[in-house]
Amino acid sequence: MPIGGSSPIGTLGYVRAGLELAEQIKQTGIDFAAVVLASGSAGTHSGLALALAHELPQLPVIGVTVSRSEEAQLPKVQGLAERTAELLNIALPENFKVELWDEYFAPRYGEPNAGTLSAIKLVASHEGLLLDPVYTGKAMSGLLDGIGRQRFNDGPLIFLHTGGAPALFAYPDAFSH
């Protein structure tokens, strides 16, 4: 299995998660504005976007890149979604669109920036939710900045927390203040 489960078989887990999420969203009757998640090795993003494009075509799935530009990340997510659809013997939905925000990964993979650290501290202090400096912290930084810049349509947002909180302990200097 490749890093991050980023193969068509590995991506099936997040296809299933996307189908479950779609069912939960439909049961609420709420029109969510978007789903926001970290986009790294592409398995999570590809699987979730594939399922949601099929079940809730109006719902954007926005991947905040954690290690590379949109130009470099786009073929990874798109290609993996195409190969996963092929494995499932389904057509890629016509409305399938990879949406990426790449303004938040600098300086590089594994190095948090000021926005990431601020997002981690804010969410921990207000919600008691621990984010990591490599993935979810960068994604939350993008979500918060997107709210501030009014990049979302009206409606509540869904943030997909993919874990990683133990990584906080690898960055003691960043959180010693």
From TrEMBL:
Cofactors needed by this protein, per the record, are: pyridoxal 5'-phosphate
Check the record and name the Gene3D superfamilies matching this protein: 3.40.50.1100
Q: Give an example GO molecular function.
A: D-cysteine desulfhydrase activity
Tryptophan synthase beta chain-like PALP domain ranges (all copies)? 6-163
- Which keywords has UniProt assigned to this entry? Pyridoxal phosphate
Family in the record: Belongs to the ACC deaminase/D-cysteine desulfhydrase family.
Matching PANTHER family: 1-AMINOCYCLOPROPANE-1-CARBOXYLATE DEAMINASE-RELATED (PTHR43780:SF2)
Q: Any idea what this protein is called? A: D-cysteine desulfhydrase
The record lists the lineage as:
Bacteria, Pseudomonadati, Pseudomonadota, Gammaproteobacteria, Pseudomonadales
